[in-house]
Prior knowledge:
The complex is a heterodimer. Chain A has helices at 2-14, 16-36, 53-59, 76-85, 108-119, 141-172, 174-180, 185-215, 223-246, 251-268, 280-286, 290-304, 308-338, and strands at residues 44-49, 65-71, 90-93, 100-104, 130-134. Chain A has a five-stranded mixed beta sheet with strand order 2-1-3-4-5, with helices on both faces. By secondary structure, chain A is α/β, with parallel strands linked by helices. Chain B contains eight helices and 13 strands. The A-B interface holds A 172-174, 176-177, 179-183, 339-340 and B 46, 49-52, 63-65, 67, 69-78, 89, 92-94.
Amino acid sequence: MWAMIAKEFRELRRDRRTVAMMIVLPVLLLVVFGYAANFKVSDIPVVATGPQAGQAASLLPAPTFKVTEIDPHASEAQAETRLRNGTATIAIVTGGARPLLLMDGTELFSVQSAQGALSRLSPPGGMSPRVKILYNPHLTTSWVMVPGIAGLILVFIGTLITSLGVVRERQSGTLEQLAVMPFRAWDVIAGKIAPYLLLAAVDLAFIIAVGMGLFHVPFTGNVGVFVLGAALFLLVTTGMGVLISTVSQSQGQAIQLAFMTLLPQVLLSGLIFPVSAMAAGVRWISYILPLTYFIQISRGVMLKNAPLSSLWPPIGLLAVLAVVVLGLAIVRFRRDLAAGGGS
Amino acid sequence: MTWGLENVSVTIGKTRALDDVTVAVRPGRVTVVVGGDGAGKTTSLRVLAGLLAPDSGTARRPAKETIGYVPATAGLYGDLTVAENLDFTARAYGLSGAGHARREDRILDRTGLAGARRRLGGQLSGGMKRKLATGMALLHAPELLIIDEPTTGVDPVSRVELWKLITGAAAEGAAVAVSTTYMNEAARADQVVLLEAGRELAGGSPDDILRRVPGAVGTAPGPQRPEGPSWRRGVNWRVWAKDGRLPPGAARVEPDFEDAVVVAALAASGEGTAS
Lengths: 343, 275
């Protein structure tokens, strides 16, 4: 038995990546969970519109609400556009007999926190505002989760499955043979990732269809915008898969690294916990994660009927990420291929 | 056209993997690179295949389309059947039509895999994998065929069959470079390059190498080890005397190829100079 124990420790000592994961991952999870896992939302972005916008805004208590814009000239439609764009979660529209509170139902926890805070308020003159929850009027969890889970599955296929596929080539020695065959590096890369892109696209369509069928999740927006966002997102995730494969010698290493990229995306992308509720120290991580932007796009298109003009920031950022990640992956993979699969 | 390496040196990390090595690979001929572990066999073939750039010296090879390469790991797809592996190679080299189908059938016959068309590559025995990999490399009738240790760990019957494939490719006009650790295989080659620790100990035809054995080689009965540089051959000892004067009890023999290789290694390491 002692011989086995000693042998295991010796093997572990040489598998530095696993040891690092055993130490780093729990610490990382603890820190990230501690700062990101927050169901009680504060700093909910609010836009106040109409003639009494300033007065209405002053009634909202901090730190639950954070008035980001006061526009006395904006109409109800313009206020709603702010919600659709994602620049605000709540809009107060004044000028009518009673103020109107528009809430973005795709931000479940924000809306629930806002409702709680508002119920404790005693409005001046006892005139409580009308509340209208948009996009997800019954605050159905599955409506919010299905577009996000679809993205998570694409991360799984794009990153994990792609990296495993490429590493398998290296381990079996076929990457070395591909390097000698009359292929251009681009042929190998494109030929390698195209099937995974296709599979992921089919999987995405299937998930969305099942989500719509089983959970009655609406698809209110433009399919083309959704396809554009999904395509860019898939390019980023498959690029991450190729990138992981270039620094992994075995499928085990690739799985470890893929999970290292998967976990932060689950916790920090806004899939479960609202990004706005996260501590500033970890929030910045959300903004470099592709799933953060895909969730904005998928929820925007499916639930909020957001047009391309509303979604260009996440689409543009995904395009930038796609260029950077895929570019880096191609450069490293070409180098690997030129060396016959050795990295 | 002669392909090969000319005065090639390669450094990998801090190790001098090849030091001024020359390997000539001629059409219709088999050149064997022979040596022990870490001798530089794989490195020299990788340089020849274009997978590794030399620090100095020249590597001459034909266009990629006319190179067939089998790495030491066999390099076939375990999740594809025998036929699918061949089909992938054919597509990679742009082969199509009836001529290609006939050649594929012929390769399957020559490799003895015609009955295993539908078996997965991963389910083949070690020898069958090697034969399939060699067949894949031969499919496009390459000008230069490079095979890294095709017979290591392969059963004796499969070794014979693999060598039939290799010599058959040379007979069809291919320039063939093969690495091996087996001396009896090297003895069958047209040209041999003997490597040790990245250096070329000897080169030429097996007959040339035998002719150039310096001093005298003798045999002495065991179990007592004779004086001077000696090595086991079965129950007896072989002994080498650089100056031709064998120790008492040793009878002079005509060295075979294995003796020639050992003597070359001993001579290179300075053994035999003091005794």
